[in-house]
């Protein structure tokens, strides 16, 4: 339950917090863009099964692989795509926390 709350908490609360704290003038747009980072979970649709609570997304799904993460970091470093990169990195961060919980449960 803690794992579930933490995962969706990061997916939803971190984008809102970042928007409110760092982007005073256009925060609504920033928050919406950051929240849309959750969309990369569409790659779960090509996985079998689509949803498996015991599976770690990182390095399993194509949009959660190491090379995808490198691209997200590059997007973040480049000024004009920074917010998109940030949205994707927050997503990866949320999923990593989830994987961490999976690992600690397994041991
Ligand atoms: Zn994900």
Question: What is this structure, in a nutshell?
Answer:
The chain is mainly α and 107 residues long. It has helices at residues 2-22, 27-35, 66-77, 82-106.
Description of the molecule:
There is one protein chain. The protein has helices at residues 2-22, 27-35, 66-77, 82-106. It is 63% helix and 0% strand. The protein has one domain. The radius of gyration is 14 Å and the shape is globular. The longest helix is centred in the last third of the chain and has 25 residues, at 82-106. Bound molecules: zinc ion. Zinc ion is lined by residues 41, 57, 64, 91, 95.
Strand content: under 5%
Bound small molecules, which ones? zinc ion
Order of helices and strands: HHHH
- The coarse silhouette is globular
How much is the radius of gyration in Å? 14 Å
**Main pleated-sheet profile:** none
Oligomer: single chain
Tally of separate helices? 4
Strand segment count: 0
Which spans have pLDDT < 50 for at least 5 consecutive residues? none
Task: Kindly give the count of domains.
Answer: 1
Kindly, what is the distance between the CA atoms of the first and last residues, rounded to a whole number of angstroms?
18 Å
The proportion of residues forming helix, as a percent range, comes to 55-70%
What is the mean predicted local confidence, pLDDT? 89
What structural class do helix, strand and pairing data support?
Answer: mainly alpha
